[in-house]
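[job 0412] stage=fold_complex status=start
inputs:
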Amino acid sequence: MEKWEENVRRVTPYTPGEQPDFPDMVKLNTNENPYPPAPGVLWRMREMQYENLRLYPAPGADLLVNALADYYKMDPEQIFVGVGSDDVLAMAFLTFFNGKEPVLFPDITYSFYDVWAGLFRIPYECQPLLEDFTIRKEDYYKPNGGVVFPNPNAPTGVEMPLADIEDILQHNRDSVVIVDEAYIDFGGISARKLVEKYDNLLVVQTFSKSRSMAGLRIGYAFGCKKIIKYLQDAKYSFNSYTMNRPSLELGAEALKDEAYFRQTVEKIIATRERTKKRLAELGFTFADSKSNFIFVTHPDFSARELFEALKKEHIYVRYFAKPRIDNYLRITIGTDEQMDVLLAFLEKYRKER
Amino acid sequence: MEKWEENVRRVTPYTPGEQPDFPDMVKLNTNENPYPPAPGVLWRMREMQYENLRLYPAPGADLLVNALADYYKMDPEQIFVGVGSDDVLAMAFLTFFNGKEPVLFPDITYSFYDVWAGLFRIPYECQPLLEDFTIRKEDYYKPNGGVVFPNPNAPTGVEMPLADIEDILQHNRDSVVIVDEAYIDFGGISARKLVEKYDNLLVVQTFSKSRSMAGLRIGYAFGCKKIIKYLQDAKYSFNSYTMNRPSLELGAEALKDEAYFRQTVEKIIATRERTKKRLAELGFTFADSKSNFIFVTHPDFSARELFEALKKEHIYVRYFAKPRIDNYLRITIGTDEQMDVLLAFLEKYRKER
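[job 0412] stage=fold_complex status=done
writing structure:
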């Protein structure tokens, strides 16, 4: 090792899901939306200003922030945007989790939380989910340097009732509480309105799942003006211009077509409920999911073996080699046709055991 | 102040240049390119895949990294990409400047360096430029936690000879040296090839200036495979997918049209040289610039007053209210027509004094 390497920040990076690219693949491994973005996005893309690419975008991302403010009927100063919700969350960890007490989050949760804590040297303490994969709210009633959890939780899909979230907020007036709502649009109830009541609450959402725009990288957060200002200041200390012109224009456009949005989300929910029924018939068990994925286990199958068998057929799901969940698979909800391919394989797989 | 605010990271954010938007404005304040990106970018934009926006981009940004590798005849593993060179530099500060010794950079330089140092709590020590705005290389021959400077320097435009950069590298084998080449394509000589010889060198460039794509946010860095791997690991610990699909596709496309690139850069250089001559005739003095801006002062004018007078005419240049340079203006090189508007005003302004 060279001497200069002594000053390098050592990290254990997050491993994103595979991004295979086979024409025949059934890609149910990274919680992408199987339907394209709102059709208006296509027209907007075709009309996008080419000459303006030479100019910096507005550093405040005004076009997108104002569109979000209109859509959610909030003040633009209550909204922060970033390069996907990962960028928003990373910036929030950096900004708000600077205390000596540990930050609290579930043991089974989005696997980026401990990575950010590692990167920024933030002390943390995982709170175990109950056996049924629900969060025990009382675990978050102790002194801490911050609280963060997804709702619905990932990769379990389990939703926490809004009243429980408010209980956690009631018991945490002295540290920032982040509710990561990446999957909230698939049937969950958002904590967004609570930002009017709790100045230490940050609610994070994304265009990647319900709005079918993972490829554009747009995340956003709601909070009181003060908490958003802190986040903006940190962002302006990192990179003035994070959102490029296509993100701003296409993101704002996507918010205009509410009918398409509703329709897409409802299709995915219908497919999810149908898939749950079929999976149960095949002997799989799973907590009730309010997201665009189902987290399943089977008494007779090894999750890892099934994962490999599916992969051979170019059916991609997500497997986490982690304590407590190493016999589970996270299956993204695709189109009905994609789920039928998966279910047909599972049926065959079960018979051949 | 609420108790939760005690854990907030306090920062002094960077202030980006104004982004006014008047139809008649002459915008010479943020070093944007006055010419549009390569025409191929327009065609690629019109043909961009709409359906694929629902899918995450490749986390390794392969399309763009491979295009850069081909263009510069380097190995893809020697290249890192980010959301503008600010993102690349922020990530590099976070990754490489974790020592106890101060990081060294010039007192007059890109004003984001001390902001990143502040954000990440990195100790630093500014080394004063000589009176003629050149960097004294010997100032960087002492123990340090890292070295960073732009070449050509900003906002002075002064280039450091490659031999001097190599001298700095020779005296700094134990810490990372970052050469920030945002403006290198306007006549400077890149240190890029030195990455083969010095494993602690990182050379940063951008699509924002010479490639007319500030609105897309694309920056990149060259280094040995080891240093790039460290940077990748930190990036994967922050945000897996930073480069969105339009950036990847349009960035890769822009590299294809070498003739257009050369032509654009040469036009800007010609305009710069012509502008230098005229400014000198008007009594302005300035160090010789190898960038797409000129950093000027005038014995008879207050820079701040001139800045305000220009602004009233919707002619925007950049003024920094900072020690040693508070009687200077940084003027971006626009089209010949834009420079003529500026020069005509300056002529009138001088007569009216």
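[job 0412] summary: Chain B has two domains: 16-37+258-351, 39-254.
[job 0412] exit 0
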